[in-house]
């Protein structure tokens, strides 16, 4: 039996990894980092970052000594032939944790580098873990860890710097994403042409009887900040009931009009969080914990994704699970409508259920999917987790089946109480009813007007504007909603700035309020430049990413950041430190990279930490 030390992030994944290890005949010692094992303090002061000699040195970022001791104790008990598998999540944050774990390993024993493997499991199931370990056996995945960890480390420094400076300016909590969301809310109302789109703020739905027979027809109107008064009046008067009149199936002179095909895409993280908030009143952070718990238990795929595509193996898995749940009309051909477009294959795919093909797992999934959910007990982790699994699975199953919708025409009833304006509005709606067998969870929409909670609107807005990340959407949405800087003035309306929000946007740089500024910084942090070349010093790589977005930022955006940095650190203007110069940065197109990094650096490494030694061992 092989021996191995396996380092993972979350305690909730231990059982799945133990099952996978037994299946592979591995005697495993599993250590969890419990999230980030090295981090900055929660407080923004002291700043904890030093910029010098072309480096960004994270002095305030400290490893958790408890986790370090656990890893070292596991190493001491490990035979010399044992493998070491770093199996943190396959995303930028997971790579940051993986590099931190590698530093601990090498600090303990330099010779361990040859036994370490970076394992990237896409789901916490036995089959996915087995495949990931097999892949890491042929490619240990260690040599590119520096490059993979750079975006997460550079983002943490940048956001700490911006958050510290903007919070000081505003006199209250305000960072890069918060400022951009306040600006987006202002633009949605004043000049939507400067945004990518308008978030959904609610919906109005109607049901009407079919003539001559059959299921009722429904009409659904998503709201994007504007609530048609005529439709709202009808929806409120007939809430929960059929409206007057009837709907006739649409037909031509020669044949029945062909049904429309409903296009349903699988949920990404934001879709699932918004849906749970809109229809079940589950706050985003609670819903996110439900997704994470389901993932750690091996019930759904990776829960932090902005993708709405499915790989071919995922399509097959979805169809198999749907059939086990008694869903008819599903096929791999229909599921493969959601295969990734060129360039999408490297991003995390959409959410989908991942039950093991065991009778007990499939019976549990079937029960969860077909259950009717009412008021959710937010204090019950199991109930929230079951709901999130149900929402993810139902959506994935709908994406893998044919949904035909028959169009119809609404006709008013003679003598109804509807006004001419209301009749005109109802006649202009798209009336549809399903054709063929309904899904087990199908619930006919009832007449009503529904306004979405502010956090759900903000999550939709962040997805549209490309702000934040799947791992932070829930936190940002609740933090902004709880700050009192935005409010919903009326049901179905777009968010507006409160007096506190107005005060904040008057104090931060105006460029920070443009969503494009936030996106540009994210692109710079996530994209390697030619200037990085073969650099292996992560402190220099991080500095280059930060230099890139700082060089592109307007003077009015850079100035308060530099001023703040000088006050909170020992930074002083000098030619060797671009952050301290009036020009800020050399032009990389006309000046050599050496000018950006400083002339060779001092004779001895001023960092004084294991980063450089670790690079020497790896390369």
TrEMBL record:
Name the Pfam families for this protein.
Answer: Topoisom_bac
Acidic residues bias spans = 606-619
GO biological process terms, semicolon-separated: DNA recombination; DNA repair; DNA topological change
Q: Which UniProt keywords apply?
A: Isomerase, Metal-binding, Zinc
Protein name (Swiss-Prot/TrEMBL): DNA topoisomerase IA
What does the record give under GO molecular function?
A: DNA binding; DNA topoisomerase type I (single strand cut, ATP-independent) activity; metal ion binding
**Which residue spans adopt a coiled-coil conformation according to this UniProt entry?**
none
Please report the stretch or stretches of sequence annotated as the Topo IA-type catalytic domain.
145-550
Fetch the PROSITE patterns from UniProt.
TOPO_IA_2
InterPro entries found in the cross-reference section = Topo_IA (IPR000380), Topo_IA_cen (IPR013497), Topo_IA_cen_sub3 (IPR013826), Topo_IA_core_domain (IPR023405)
Cite the SUPFAM superfamilies for this sequence.
Answer: Prokaryotic type I DNA topoisomerase
* Region of interest: Disordered: 573-619
Q: Which organism is it from?
A: Gemmobacter caeni
């Amino acid at each position: 039996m092989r021996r191995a030390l396996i380092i993972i992030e979350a305690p909730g994944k231990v059982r799945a990894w133990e099952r996978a290890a037994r299946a592979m005949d591995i005697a495993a010692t599993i250590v969890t980092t419990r999230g980030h094992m090295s981090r900055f303090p929660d407080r923004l002061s002291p700043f904890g970052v030093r910029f010098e000699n072309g480096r960004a040195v994270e002095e305030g970022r400290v490893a958790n000594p408890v986790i370090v001791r656990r890893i070292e104790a596991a190493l001491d008990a490990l035979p010399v032939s044992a493998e070491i598998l770093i199996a943190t999540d396959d995303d930028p944050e997971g790579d940051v944790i993986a590099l931190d774990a590698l530093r601990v390993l090498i600090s303990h024993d330099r010779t361990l580098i040859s036994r370490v493997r970076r394992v990237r499991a896409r789901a916490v199931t036995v089959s996915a873990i087995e495949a990931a370990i097999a892949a890491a056996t042929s490619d240990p995945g260690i040599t590119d860890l520096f490059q993979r960890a750079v975006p997460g480390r550079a983002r943490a420094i940048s956001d700490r710097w911006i958050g510290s400076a903007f919070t000081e300016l505003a006199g209250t909590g305000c960072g890069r994403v918060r400022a951009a969301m306040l600006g987006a809310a202002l633009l949605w109302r004043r000049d939507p042409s400067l945004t990518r789109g308008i978030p959904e703020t609610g919906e109005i739905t109607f049901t009407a009887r079919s003539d001559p027979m059959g299921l009722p027809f429904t009409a659904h109107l998503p709201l994007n900040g504007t609530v048609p008064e005529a439709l709202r009046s009808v929806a409120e008067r007939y809430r929960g009931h059929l409206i007057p009149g009837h709907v006739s199936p649409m037909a031509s002179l020669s044949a029945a009009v062909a049904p429309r095909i409903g296009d349903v895409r699988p949920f990404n993280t934001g879709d699932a969080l918004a849906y749970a908030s809109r229809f079940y009143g589950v706050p985003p952070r609670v819903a996110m914990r439900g997704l994470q718990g389901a993932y750690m238990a091996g019930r759904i795929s990776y829960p932090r994704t902005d993708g709405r595509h499915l790989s071919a193996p995922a399509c097959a898995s979805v169809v198999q699970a749907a059939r086990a749940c008694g869903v008819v009309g599903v096929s791999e051909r229909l599921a493969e409508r959601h295969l990734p477009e060129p360039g999408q294959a490297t991003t995390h795919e959409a959410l989908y259920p991942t039950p093991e093909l065991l009778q007990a797992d499939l019976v549990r999934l079937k029960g969860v999917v077909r259950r009717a959910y009412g008021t959710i007990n937010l204090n019950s982790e199991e109930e929230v987790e079951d709901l999130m699994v149900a929402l993810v699975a139902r959506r994935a199953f709908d994406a893998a089946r044919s949904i035909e919708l028959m169009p119809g025409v609404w006709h008013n009833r003679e003598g109804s109480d509807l006004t001419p304006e209301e009749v005109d509005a109802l006649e202009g709606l798209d009336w549809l009813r399903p054709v063929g067998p309904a899904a087990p969870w199908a619930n006919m929409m009832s007449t009503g007007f529904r306004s979405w909670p502010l956090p759900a609107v903000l999550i939709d807005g962040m997805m549209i504007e490309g702000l934040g990340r799947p791992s932070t959407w829930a936190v940002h949405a609740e933090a902004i909603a709880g700050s009192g800087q935005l409010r919903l003035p009326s049901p179905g309306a777009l968010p507006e700035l409160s007096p506190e929000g107005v005060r904040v946007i008057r104090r931060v740089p105006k460029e920070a309020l443009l969503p494009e500024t936030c996106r540009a910084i994210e692109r710079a942090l996530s994209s390697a430049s030619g200037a990085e070349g073969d650099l292996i010093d992560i402190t220099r790589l991080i500095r280059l990413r930060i230099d890139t977005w700082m060089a592109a930022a307007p003077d009015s955006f850079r100035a308060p950041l530099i001023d703040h940095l000088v006050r909170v650190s020992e930074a002083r203007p000098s030619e060797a430190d671009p952050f301290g110069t009036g020009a800020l940065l050399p032009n990389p197109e006309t000046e050599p990279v050496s000018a950006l990094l400083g002339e060779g650096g001092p004779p001895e490494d001023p960092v004084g930490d294991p980063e450089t030694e670790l690079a020497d061992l790896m390369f």
